Amino acid sequence: MYRTSFWRSAALVWALATSQLLMGQLVINELMADNNSTDYDDFFEAEDWVEIYNSGSIVNLAGYFLTDDPDSLNKWMFPETNPALTTVLPGGHVRIWCDKDPEQGEDHADFKLSADGESVFLVEPDGLTVVDQISFGPQASNISYGRSCDGCADWIYFNVPTPDAPNSNEGVPTEQLYFNEFQHLNATTIAPEAGPGGAWLEVFNPNPIDVNLAGYTLTADGTAWTVPSNDPVRTLIPAEGFALVWLSGDPNWGGDHASISVGSGVPPLNWTLAGPDGMVVDAVEWIPAAEDVSYGRSTDGGPGWQEFADPTPRVSNQTVIIPGANLVINELMSDNTWSITDDAGEHEDWFEVHNPTDVAVDLAGYYLSDSWNNPTKYRVPVGIPDSTTIPAGGFKLFWADEDGPQGWNHVNFRLSNTGEHLALRSPDGFSVVDSLNFGEVWSNFSYGRLEDASLPWVFFEQSTPEASNNGATVEVALPDGGARAFAPNPVVRGQFVQVAQAGSLWNMSGRRLLTWPKGGAVLAPSVPGLYLIRWEGTMGGQPAKLLVL
After folding, report:
1. Which residues pair with 225 in a beta bridge?
2. Which of 117, 337, 344, 484 is the most exposed place for a label (fewest CB within 10 A)?
3. Phi and psi, residue 387, nearest 5°
């Protein structure tokens, strides 16, 4: 998911401070990092894009740079031979396709945007002075992220993108949606990406287009909650797809957590769902069921209701459960800068699936995802068994580079160098074959099973893509030469972390939560999230990151 980087020189910081005059004139105004079907280039391809806005006098962008890498500020240069493209009139816009395909035209940059989040920079012809920059988190399909108005400071999401046009938050019509499934007493069925679990409801989108729940209002026995507009990754329902709403009562955990709380007692019985215009699109009576049993429509969006001993959150109520083969995610590398390259000669993230059985397994139709809210993010293609079959005892490598045209095993997501979720699901799109939540992995180290298909997971100085982990060199030191300071990472909330020496724990808001005088066992926070450990003594300096699940 979200990728991080740090300024490599004090000169860059100085240059940023001296560019204030231009910042009011040229700005990055809007972007789309997951364009599936909203807008097309001259080759009728839906590609990512960035829009520049000029609030001042006429500007010629020839020689300026656009980049997504703070360590390579001169990554792509606006052409010096096309004034029709680079001349921006007062109040004008210019849109650049970010598709890693510069041969398609002078308005095509040689990098892509990451739907998992990153940063984009507009840089002066000196290749150093940053005119404007924006850092963004995970992006939802076909929704753009831009300034609330041209050149304004606030950034918002647009259900209707406005490339090459003034930014305006145009409303969308209310679409027909359905309550599709409820679970009142959820002990073991499913857990959220973040925050408390428990009761949930599922909304079904029968339309051939994606629908963002933002602005829709959920009402339970007279208590109303309106879905927020600032978290489309969690509120977008794919075409003919499903979305969950967690009834935790705490909306601070994200756009999929309602302020309506459903505890262990009798839940509210009368529920309505209304569009942004107030039109009610569905109204149902919730019938409580036993623990780990759900109550849902017999057919998605249909009139009949029944209990499900095997609930189907985020998938069709008619899903036929297909248990997957005995496969495991065996190894991964989330920060590859000088290790192996793909067939295009590029250093990309990767992970490996291992078949420890004595029979071959065809991965065709299996699903891979780094998103809790989109478990069917990437589907292994069907019909190429010579490529997708893992032999008995064999391995299959996947490149996590969002670069599908380079091959069937190039998935549509990247891995985060700060840690995230990774899962392999069976062809039913629901049954988990294997999954893990991993924390920060050091650059060019891999993270894998000490022995194939076994525990524990360890760091490898010697990575073994598409080969056995057995016997590979396990980490013996941090990249900076210090002893490994704490474990495990990530850690489950409320469990203990073993630390090597004195230090303190801080949240990302800069608040110190805990201090310990020496090495030993430290209780992890009860709230999931990313935390910092600051060391005293010999390991002082750069804080360490602890991921709590």
Report:
1. 218
2. 337
3. -95, -40
In order, the DSSP letters of 251-309 are GGG-TTB-S-B--SSPPP-EEEEE-TTS-EEEEEE-----TT-EEEESSTT-S-EEEES
Whether 266 is covered by a domain: the verdict is yes
Q: What is the pLDDT of residue 482?
A: 38
Q: Rounded to the nearest 5°, which phi and psi values hold at 253?
A: -85, -5
What is the reported pTM? 0.75
Same domain? For 404 and 521 the reply is no
Answer yes or no: do 385 and 446 share one domain: yes
Same domain, yes or no, for 253 and 388? Answer: no
Q: Which domain covers residue 498, as residue numbers? A: 486-548
What's the one-letter identity of residue 378?
Y
Q: Are residues 16 and 126 in the same domain?
A: yes
pLDDT tens, position by position, 380-432: 999 999 999 999 999 999 999 988 889 999 999 999 887 889 999 999 998 99
Q: State the total domains in the chain.
A: 4
- Decide: residue 177, CB within 10 A, 0-12 exposed, 13-18 middle, 19+ buried: buried
Q: Tokens 């994606």 appear where?
A: 210
The CATH number linked to 422 is: 2.60.40
Question: What tens digit of pLDDT does each residue of 291-337 get?
Answer: 999 999 999 999 999 999 999 999 999 998 899 999 999 999 999 98
100 with 346: CB under 8 angstroms? no
Any domain includes 107: yes
pLDDT for 2 equals 45
My answer on whether 131 and 20 are in the same domain is yes
Q: Has residue 123 been placed in a domain?
A: yes
- Of 425, 460, 495, which marks where a domain is finished? 460
> For residue 40, which phi and psi values (nearest 5 degrees)?
-130, 145
Q: Give the contacts of 14 (CB within 8 A, at least 6 positions apart).
A: none
> Of the residues 158, 190, 216, which one is the last residue of a structural domain?
158
Let me know if residue 473 belongs to a domain.
no
DSSP annotation of 314 reads T
**DSSP H or E stretch at residue 499:** strand 496-499
For range 200-216, the mean pLDDT: 97
Cα–Cα distances (Å) from 504 to 442, 493, 497, 518, 545, in that order, read 22, 17, 12, 10, 12
Token output for 165: 């046009």
Q: At 426, which amino acid appears?
A: S
The model's pLDDT over 444-486, given as tens digits with 9 standing for 90+, comes to 899 999 999 998 888 898 899 999 999 888 764 343 333 457 7
